[in-house]
Amino acid sequence: MEPKQALKILTDLISIETVDQNESQVADYLTHLFVPFADRAQLKRISFAPGRDNLLITVGTQGPILGFSGHEDVVAADKDQWQTDPFVGTMRDDRIYGRGASDMKSGLAAMVVAMLDLLASNQPLPGRIRLLATIGEETGEYGANQVVQQGLVDDLAGIVIGEPSNLQLEVTHKGVIDYCVTSVGLASHASKPEAGQNAIWPLILFAQKVHDYFEQATISDPKLGQMTHVLSQINGGEQINSVPAKAQLTGNIRTIPAYSHKQIYQFLDNAIEQINQADDAQLTIEYRYPEPPLPDQSHNKLVLVAQGVLQNKLHLPGEIIAGTGATEACEYVKVPNMPILVCGPGEGISDHQDNEWVSIKNYLLGCQFYEELAWQFWKDQLAK
């Protein structure tokens, strides 16, 4: 494919505003691209909600299946803070600007370009590629969860997630646990605190217990470092001269394999129970979008093949890295023994920021990388 055509696919995707909705428009656009190859590409839509469709595209008819994964949604953009329209892919100074340019419509577009080039070559394909274009990654990885629950990744020999990594090989990343603790008390006039029950104090006790726990959680992962915890929000009370009847606290935990999520839940649940019993409090805890960490994939065959492609074909370092942010790998790890790699053309510098961008050079290299990776991965699988 000519670079001009490949760049148009990316700018077209950026122009589709998919801030936690409208992903079906991306599915429509991608479907249109594969119409000329309808006899050799199988398309399957999986609806999550009205206007929100996952799209699976499989090319090839036999042999090992390599998964390509890219999410269709993006985070919000404040247009007043951008130098260009965030929902118009703008090429300037060897970069493409727009919301999703890095995270991760460039990865999705590069995967699509690679698949279209494979089909256009008219060469017999020794294996298959299945693209998973998913909804809702930025708010809970709903699409990836849906395709995993329906068994649509069970037959993959490996999967590459096109999140921004500057074409480095991200082989592990932290998991995440978000939680919200609600405290219910009893309102009274501040001049008569004995007549009420302060909802804020139990949260302070909880915060101290959690702080002490994470201070003692000193195991460090060789690539990811230590588990981290942030108390991210706290609010409560009605006015300054009243005993607060309700208050809430939220926290964000970035986990590592050394501490299981079950172990962390047990600690947090026990802390809630202890405070409720000892202080006659009414605390409840809710967990939101928990995702496990990606265990180290350094030595799986997919990573080794990808490293060889980057070094020998594209003359790039093929550096192994670790990430702190969660990806859809948190869902794909539920498939036992499936090799997983995070690697995409986005540099990861401007993700979720104003004036988000991807370099044109990196994007076009990404198109080459995914196509060459498919050939080399199939060759390696069939040599077994």
Measured on Cα atoms, how large is the radius of gyration? 24 Å
- Main structural class: alpha+beta
CATH architecture assignment name of the largest domain: 3-Layer(aba) Sandwich
Q: Indicate the low-confidence ranges by residue numbers.
A: none
CATH fold-type name of the largest domain: Aminopeptidase
CATH C-level category of the largest domain: Alpha Beta
Distance between the termini: 32 Å
Strand order of the largest sheet: 1-2-6-3-7-18
Number of domain modules: 2
Categorize the overall geometry: elongated
β-sheet strand percentage: 25-35%
Q: Give the full name of the CATH homologous superfamily of the largest domain.
A: Zn peptidases
Largest sheet: 6 strands, mixed
Helical region count? 9
Q: How much helical structure, as a percent, in the residues?
A: 25-40%
**Mean pLDDT value:** 97
Strand tally, please? Answer: 19
Series of secondary-structure elements, N-terminal to C-terminal: HHEEEEEHEHEEEEHEEEEEHEHEHEEH
Cofactor: Zn(2+); Co(2+)
Pfam family, one: Peptidase_M20
Keywords: Amino-acid biosynthesis, Cobalt, Diaminopimelate biosynthesis, Hydrolase, Lysine biosynthesis, Metal-binding, Zinc
InterPro entries: ArgE/DapE, ArgE/DapE_CS, Bact_exopeptidase_dim_dom, Peptidase_M20, Peptidase_M20_dimer, Peptidase_M20A
